[in-house]
Every structure is written in C-alpha cells, then in structure tokens.
Amino acid sequence: MTISDIGEDTSAGAEEPEKAKAQHQDQLASASTEPITTIKQVKKEQRRILFRSPGFIIGSLILVFWILASLFPSLLSTFDPGETVRNAEGGSMTSQGPNGTAWFGTTRLGRDVYSRVIFGARPILIIAPLATIIAVWAGTIVGMLTGYYRGIFDQIVSRLLEAILSIPAILLAILIVFTFGSTQAVITGTIAFLFIAPVARTVRAATLSESQLDYVTAARMRGESSLFIITREILPNVIGVVVVEATVRLGYAVFTLTTLAFLGLSPGDATNANWGLDVANNYPNIINGTWWPTIFPALAIASMVIGVNLIADAMEKAIKS
Q1: Per the structure, how many domains does the chain have?
Q2: Are 109 and 93 in contact (CB under 8 A)?
Q3: How confident is the model at residue 197 (pLDDT cuts 50, 70, 90)?
C-alpha cells in the first residue's frame, strides 16, 4: 500500500462521519417539519368542512343580519321604535295587523313592531357577546389551572364550581340582579358569572386529557415552566374546545338576557326596544287576537339563538372530523 493510498483511505474515513452527520441532521429537519405540515393540513381540512357546512352558512347569514341590524338599525327600519305610526289621515294606527305601512303591524300604543324588532337587536349584541367573552376568558384560565395542577387546588375549585352549577342559572341571575340593580354592568357581570363554571369544567376536562400526553411530559423533562407549558403547549391544543364553548355560551347568553328582560330586569328605559320586554308587555293580548307584537320579537330571539347554535354545531363537527 502506497502513501497516497493511505491518504485516500484516511480522507474517505473522515468523510464518512460528516456524511452520517449530514444525513442525521436532514432526518431531524424532516421529522420536525412533518408534524407542522400535518397540523396545517388538519386545520385546512377542518376549515374546508366548516365553510361547506350548511348549518354554518345558514347560521352565519342569520348572525350577520342581526349584527348589521344592531350596527345600522336606521338603515333597515322604517320608523323610530318609540314613534307612533299614523295613517294618511293623521290618525294613530294602534293594534294594526301587518300591512303595507307597518310590515309587522303596530302595538296597542301605535309603535311599529318591525322597527322595534330591528332596534331590539342592539342591546342583545352589546351585552351578550361581552358577557360571553368575560366568561370564556375567566373560565378558560380556571379550567386550565385546575386541569394542569390538580391536587388539593383542583378539588377546592371543583367543589366551588359544582356548588354554583347546582343552583338554577336563571334563579341565581334574578337574585344577583335584584341585589345589585338592573344596570347594564350588573347584568353583563351576572351573565358572565353564570357561565364561568360550565366553561371551566369543559376546559378542565380537555386540559386533563392533554396533560397526560407525551409532548407535555417532554416539555417538563426539558425543564419548561408551568406557565410555558400551559400557554404554549396545552392552550393551542384545547383552543378548538374553547371556541366551540364560546359559541354555545353566546346562545345561552342571548336567551338569559331576554329572559331577564321578560321579567322586567333589563337596563334602560322600559320604552326602549327590547325583545324580551316587548314579549312581556304584549303577550296578554294574544288571547284578543293581537299576536304580532309578541310573535315577531319572539321569532327574533329564536332566530338568533338558532343561528348561534347552528354555527356551534358546525364548528364542533369540523373539529372532531
């Protein structure tokens, strides 16, 4: 063997570890990008299923209509909600059925029912979404903390949540509003408080399931802090549950708010357009054949709740697919 042969063998031997190292790095790179690609594909497929869902499309159209009604009620209505509708002779049109002038008829005070339905969407879409955001935000924090730390902290908080859930929601709401007043802030806070417990329970169950998986164990072994694991590891994997829960609670918030208004526990002037209050003020007249001042606000409530629930069902099916 010549000296040149020995040099070639040595250089070839030195190149082998370099090639192996390069191959190992390529494998690690492909392994690290594969989960990201898979997650993106899953999310893309979920969005495709969601946007093609008839329930999501119908629910979105209903919700968009009421959002536009709350933002631009004057553009969609024909009269002021507190105005008395008058006929061509100048007389007031009281308790008139649906007609060409008043599409949904008039109340016993001569107010246009259609305009009151349109203007009545505004207080609903101010209080209900705000209360839902507060409830979901607080409930998610409580649920993730109890689901991750468990132990005595989980037991104490869970018992408190169960105590709140054991009281009928509307009864608890009436008690709080009677005690602190029927202002907009009190009603918003009351509805938010009612929904913290169910949101926390749902998020806790999802967090318990996620905290047992390998990626959380690996994060702990790397020495990551609990805050990092909760916010950067677990939260992205339970965000779908949180979004669905928020949509469901929005429907319940609309129903709870209108129920309080029906009972006379609504903020503002009693003459203001309010679906629940209009139903309460006019339903005794149904036995006299004057059904329109009650039916149309009730249909508005039902349509909004149904629209929100259709969106929630479609999102839940897309996430589980």
Answers
A1: 1
A2: no
A3: very high
Strand partners of residue 112: 106
Q: Worst-scoring range by mean pLDDT, 43-47, 107-111, 234-238, 303-307?
A: 43-47
> Can you give the pTM of this predicted structure?
0.82
Structure-token pair, residue 231 = 């916010």
DSSP string, 250-295: HHHHHHHHHHHHHTT--SS-TTS--HHHHHHHHGGGGGGT--HHHH
Whether 224 is covered by a domain: the verdict is yes
Q: Per residue in 14-42, pLDDT tens?
A: 444 555 444 544 543 444 444 545 767 77
Let me know: does 238 contact 210? Beta carbons within 8 Å.
Answer: yes
Per-position b or e across 282-301, b if 16+ CB within 10 A of its CB: bbebeeeebbbbbbbbbebb
Dist CA 192 CA 187 (whole Å)? 8
Domain for residue 6, yes or no?
no
Any idea what the CATH number is for the domain that residue 224 is in?
A: 1.10.3720.10
Q: Is residue 23 in a domain?
A: no
Counted residue by residue, the chain has a size of 321
Q: What is the DSSP letter of 107?
A: -
